[in-house]
Design goal:
alpha/beta, 2 helices, 3 strands
């Protein structure tokens, strides 16, 4: 059992980034309260995603990214 998929998606900028960060941080705090791992969504928001993960340090995680390899 885990919480997710949660995270940040800056690709289309439909939701304000500040709001996405606020909600994502609240979700990470909930995962800590419930002692559950998280499933992370990160699309074109890697720095902000990693900053929050380093700050809150959730228990275990899995990621879903849309990273483009650079050949």
């Amino acid at each position: 059992v885990a919480l997710g998929e949660m995270g940040l998606d800056y690709h289309y900028d439909v939701s304000p980034r500040e709001r996405q960060i606020e909600v994502f941080e609240r979700q990470l705090l909930l995962s800590l309260e419930l002692d559950l791992p998280v499933i992370i969504h990160d699309r074109e928001a890697h720095k902000d995603t990693m900053d929050l993960l380093r700050k809150r340090r959730p228990k275990g995680l899995s990621t879903a990214t849309a990273a483009q390899p650079r050949w």
